[in-house]
Amino acid sequence: REGGNKWGKNTQLEPSGKSMVVLAAERQMAQKADMAATGGGDMSRITDMNSERASRVQHPLFSTVSLMLMVEILNSRLFTTVRDALGLTYDVSFEMRMFERLESGWFVLAVTSMPSKIDDALAASLRTIRALRTQPIRKSELDRARRTLLTRHESDMKDNLYLLGLITHLQSECVPEKTVDCIKDLLPMLTAATVEDIYAAYDALPLENSHLFSCIGTSGKQPPGQQQQQASAPAPTPTGTPQNENSSNILDDPKAAAAALLQAMKAVGMGNNKPEDPPTGNQQ
């Protein structure tokens, strides 16, 4: 459902027009500083870490990179949990619609399953997404997502359409966030991303039921309900076969089928016809 655009903005959820991902990261840094001050931690070390991260947070690509890594991690968890562990779906995917000009966005969770399992598959997928906070992200998950994006970027650089997407709106006044830094700093930003950055992007996702909408579609010419009704309906009586109390057992009993066929032949006069006698003698 609703979320931020490529720059983490959504004016409906954050009227100030600021990036929701950046605001979440700033709250994280403020909480860390407060905990160090009240708990007697190493304040200088916390300050240095926050200072290093603050430079990345203010980069135009911070929200984009954080959201991209979050999507990869969620897709990995959905696949291993809902498909492999629970066996509820053939395919499941999580995608973000990250626009550059429109100050809004949304995410789409697509689940493919049997009609009898679709409700359970959808519920399991939502639980997996919401469990990202209770089941912390491991560094290995982040490293795997990072490698996936870096490999994909290297491969897509050979595609002209991908290159055009990188430079689109680069000089547009409608997208002031997109500068040359968004191209030359993409790999360094991916390399420097941390687990905290992923949770900053995750906190920008509204996952309450009031923000979620579900839609179930079926493949095929008929809805599953009608397919089940037709499957349970009795088979039609074959044409030309007299319908009687034993007609339902004809297909199950070969003798009954032969008797019914003979009866039908007699009814139309085929059973009384005899082949013509062969000609005798000489005929002129």
What do you see in this structure?
By secondary structure, the chain is mainly alpha-helical. It is 50% helix and 6% strand. It contains eleven helices and three strands; from the N terminus they run βαααββαααααααα. The protein has a three-stranded antiparallel beta sheet with strand order 1-3-2. A hairpin with a 6-residue loop joins β2 (91-98) and β3. α3 (62-85) packs across α4 (118-130). The longest helix is centred in the N-terminal third of the chain and has 24 residues, at 62-85. It is elongated. The N and C termini lie far apart (95 Å). Residues 274-284 have low confidence and may be disordered.
Summarize the structure.
With 284 residues, the protein is mostly helical.
